[in-house]
Amino acid sequence: MSVAxxxxxxxxxxxxxxxxxxAFVEVGGRPLIWHALQAASRSARVAHVVVVAPDGYEGDPxxxxxxxxxxxxxxxxxxxxxxxxxxxPDADVVLIHDAARCLAPPSLYDDVAADVLAGHDxxxxxxxxxxxxxxxxxxxxxxxxxxRTELRAVQTPQGxxxxxxxxxxxxxxxxxxxxxxxxxxxVERLGLPVHVVAGHADAFKVxxxxxxxxxxxxxxxxAAAV
Length: 226
Ligand SMILES: Nc1ccn([C@@H]2O[C@H](COP(=O)(O)OP(=O)(O)OP(=O)(O)O)[C@@H](O)[C@H]2O)c(=O)n1
Ligand SMILES: C[C@](O)(CO)[C@H](O)COP(=O)(O)O
Description:
alpha/beta, 31% helix
């Protein structure tokens, strides 16, 4: 069984608010996508890496760790679909990862891939939720307080049997869905199970400016540990 990884890096990074696309913003002197590709290349399971890049960045040296580079789409879902379209024929397990989760460790890729190889066709890493979450209506009124012990904050890489994720994306196109919250949600919409494995604190998503400070701190901690 061969494992391929699609790293989606074509987002603009509006919430980060920098001039260049988020995946090309630097932390620790290297772009986020470079860090993500380092981790993917250190995974014992990943044999092939596809990067989905923003317009104009397809030839950027930060992508030298990729086997294939394709242009992005208008939404994350479209970008993932572009990556799925160029997978090598022998890839039967697919990891789908956000470049924005650039410090997810190689062990997390391995854990997710191993769970797919063990027979779960859709796998997500999840961590406990630290805040109490409320469901709020259009008038700003709380309508529910879900039991926090049942909730998980879900990360990437998410892992799938290739046949299942291709079917899930094809069904999304047929339904007219264009902006799924994540890839597992498309599998859920097929009525298929999604298995959760333990996530990792370092797999947080660089989204807002303060996340760059956290990423720098994680890199400094890693450098001090070697
Ligand atoms: N059209 C898009 C949108 C997002 N992504 C990727 O999907 C991941 C998760 O998206 P997010 O963190 O929301 O990134 P952005 O869309 O860039 O962020 P923002 O919503 O702040 O603009 C990122 O690695 C991003 O590059 C992508 O490849 N193509
Ligand atoms: C895929 C994801 O990272 C899982 O948590 C998340 O759904 C991406 O959300 P975003 O709004 O595109 O950042």
